[in-house]
Amino acid sequence: MTQYFEGIGRRKESTARVRVMSGSGVFTVNDKALNEYFTRIGDLEAVMAPLKTAGYDLSQYDVTVAVNGGGVTGQTTAVQLGLARALVNMNGDLGPTMRKGGLLTRDARVKERKKPGLKRARKAPTYTKR
Known about the structure:
The protein has four helices and five strands. A hairpin with a 2-residue loop joins strand 3 and strand 4 (32-33). Helix 2 (43-54) packs parallel to helix 3 (72-90). The longest helix is centred in the middle third of the chain and has 19 residues, at 72-90. The radius of gyration is 18 Å and the shape is elongated. It has a single domain (5-100), classed as Ribosomal Protein S5, domain 2, CATH 3.30.230. By secondary structure, it is α+β, with helices and mostly antiparallel strands. Helices cover 32% and strands 22% of the residues.
């Protein structure tokens, strides 16, 4: 079995396990090609941002991602964080560069819980005088 470096990324309800190993440039997400899985404009750039920041060329590495839960945006940023963490595990000198680029910070914002007497977390029912 080949040596790989792993990073776990989370965002909202999404969790991504990213593995980076030396190879020929194959990037798969849940057994699909990267551009097949993330079809929205800007998602590919967001996922590839850690590689670009590190100055690595994808053609030297194989990346496999197992991502589940949440929606498209949550999964995109979870994969981004997981890839950044995997690259830092591979080369510790990248830590400050990734931190400066904002790629190692976990976005802790999650949906606020519904409160009793309200329709949603903060939306109150319409006030009626009579």
